[in-house]
């Protein structure tokens, strides 16, 4: 839970359109909401930030303390976060910077807010530098201009998920194309880890929502499609198995077996494309006349899978 001081800052921020007084007066402040790595509960933290182009950068300074702050451990486990800036609120992918990129961004932060340099001087741990990448749904490839029906929503979510797995594959291939030490392939970075982990979590939510809400709702009106839903459920189990393999490989900060990761990712991509193709062929015609959101049916296709 936030401390009483943090909660007072949060309350003031939300009551005054992102403006607060006291030690934060005149500074750039955002609210970062993460999901507890162990508890699964939402945690909101006020943080200073620095702009870098269109991205927002935050630093895990913990006032120069010896340990990383709790919010940093949370976003490593669950990379999709909620950001509040002024009156704007949006979901973002949190990606810690590494290597030269981290050094470049930290120097940029220190130029803007020299106090972070003082925090770094107090501790031997490198302060984490995290880039918050805002999603822009309107730029999703193939996204329907307007989502008016349940068919539109299902296609929108599928389009986003297809795009995410393509992006992870492209970044993975770029890593493998780069020369590694002693001829070995390079390890996989935090960018790939965070994006893939976010994709896996969104995919799981989408399929659980379909199994729990969408498929039973359609089946009640189309009992002759029992074989179709049996096949879709079986495909969900297959995808979940591969997703579990990916999650196991992503459990640490570094992917210990990048070749296994690459193979599992290729299998996931192939299976998911075939599954989505079949599901769209069968279900889109049935959902084309159902308004979105359908009356009395809670967001079955996973509306929040898109960040």
UniProtKB/TrEMBL annotation:
<dbReference type="Pfam" id="PF04075">
    <property type="entry name" value="F420H2_quin_red"/>
</dbReference>
<comment type="similarity">
    <text>Belongs to the F420H(2)-dependent quinone reductase family.</text>
</comment>
<feature type="domain" description="Hemerythrin-like">
    <location>
        <begin position="150"/>
        <end position="287"/>
    </location>
</feature>
<protein>
    <submittedName>
        <fullName>Nitroreductase/quinone reductase family protein</fullName>
    </submittedName>
</protein>
<dbReference type="Pfam" id="PF01814">
    <property type="entry name" value="Hemerythrin"/>
</dbReference>
<dbReference type="InterPro" id="IPR004378">
    <property type="entry name" value="F420H2_quin_Rdtase"/>
</dbReference>
<dbReference type="InterPro" id="IPR012312">
    <property type="entry name" value="Hemerythrin-like"/>
</dbReference>
<dbReference type="InterPro" id="IPR012349">
    <property type="entry name" value="Split_barrel_FMN-bd"/>
</dbReference>
